[in-house]
Amino acid sequence: MKKYLVWDIPVRLFHWLLVLCLFGQWFTTEVLENAMHIHFYIGYFTLGLIIFRLLWGFFGTRYAKFSSFIAGPKAIISYLQSLASKQKSYTTGHNPLGGLLLPAVLILVGLQAISGLFTSDDIVSAGPYYDSANSVIQGWMQWLHKNIFDVLMGLVVIHLLAITWYKLGLKHDLITPMLTGQKVVEVSKGIAHSKLVKAFMLAITVGIFIYWLVEINPPPVEEYYY
Ligand code: HEM
Ligand code: HEM
Question: Entry's Pfam families (predicted)?
């Protein structure tokens, strides 16, 4: 058993950039005034992060792939039973329960960002697709945008409690591997490298798509917002 790479660079970058972006989104609406334009740019970037991680879940390295950690109810229950037993076994990647976090976060943050595109603050700023929606859709999107964030924060609290419990209760550190990428595992379980060329190409493609989505495709914004 030695330290080997488990979390590739894209997974770690995604995680810590997502944390920064969500903090930024809260800060630009709840603390700063007149920072909607920054809120929009961070929102577009966050949407890009989400799309990137979705694709990385199919094309990424071993433990980044959905296939390595999406488990059914049986696996989740037997994992919970194993925690109660004396002989604990730890997974190299996400555990079956923790593996549910990524899809939940991708759906919630994805919906948050998409609903933002259709949201207006009713004063000066409107997302690029606000004008193309009718008032019913606008109302739904505004509602989603105001409420999903709280659900997301509830999930983050559970996430942090689980990690703290692993550290203090089970004496198992999950945080350092999410920073360095390395865990103590058998040779055969580590990944060789982060597939950075593939990640770079995917990131460029996602960047171009986001630019098209928010700059080229939207209908012209009506004058009354200014
Ligand atoms: C806005 C706050 C946060 C969100 C939305 C979030 C979300 C996530 C997601 C989606 C994953 C899965 C990563 C992937 O497979 O790509 C993850 C893993 C992880 N996060 Fe967070 N996270 C947040 C904050 C934090 C903080 C503050 C810490 C550390 C103190 C942390 C520590 C970890 C660790 C250690 C893992 C890996 C867990 C494992 O080994 O299975 N997270 N997080
Ligand atoms: C994942 C990315 C995003 C997050 C986490 C986020 C988060 C938030 C939060 C917490 C608020 C305050 C809601 C409240 O009033 O209680 C807000 C408001 C707002 N957001 Fe976002 N947002 C994101 C993306 C976007 C995007 C992409 C746009 C538009 C392009 C946008 C447009 C707006 C607008 C216009 C408001 C003001 C709504 C109002 O005053 O009723 N957001 N956002």
Answer: Ni_hydr_CYTB
The H or E element containing residue 196 is helix 196-211
Q: Where are the domains of the chain?
A: 2-225
Q: Which two tokens stand for residue 99?
A: 């593996």
pLDDT digits (tens, 9 = 90+) for 114-169: 999 999 988 889 999 999 999 999 999 999 999 999 999 999 999 999 999 999 99
Look up tokens 């049986």; give the residue.
74
Residue pair 150/144 in contact (Cβ under 8 Å)? The answer is no
Rounded Cα–Cα distance for residues 98 and 30 (Å):
30
Radius of gyration of the chain (CA): 20
Nearest CA to ligand 2 atom 32: 116
CA of 161 to the centre of ligand 2 (A): 26
**Tokens of residue 13, six digits:** 């970058």
pLDDT digits (tens, 9 = 90+) for 199-224: 999 999 999 999 999 999 998 866 55
